[in-house]
Amino acid sequence: MPRSVNAVASRARRKKVLKQAKGFFGRRKNVWTVAKNAVEKAMSYAYRGRKEKKRNFRSLWITRINAGAREHGMSYSQFMGALKKNNIELNRKVLADLAMNHPEAFKAVVDQVK
Prior knowledge:
This protein has helices at about 5-20, 30-70, 75-85, 90-100, 105-114. By secondary structure, it is mainly α. Binds directly to 23S ribosomal RNA and is necessary for the in vitro assembly process of the 50S ribosomal subunit. It is not involved in the protein synthesizing functions of that subunit.
């Protein structure tokens, strides 16, 4: 009896990986063994990047809040401490948006915690 190999599934798997490698440079886009490694590496970078993006945005928000707070004579740490003490539960994303796009509203928050 001849050996049974599931060529359909194997080809589908390879096609899927080669489709993910579309746009890569040189042999990384069309040679199976090279593309497989390149796609695996790219996936790990993408996973790591999604975590990094959260860190980067948080640091950006903190910088913007700090700049806004210093305009009103407070440092970032003093401002955040005063927010906690007054039970104002605005997250950093919202505070940064207020500091950047709505300075009068941010000033109202600062005046409330002073």
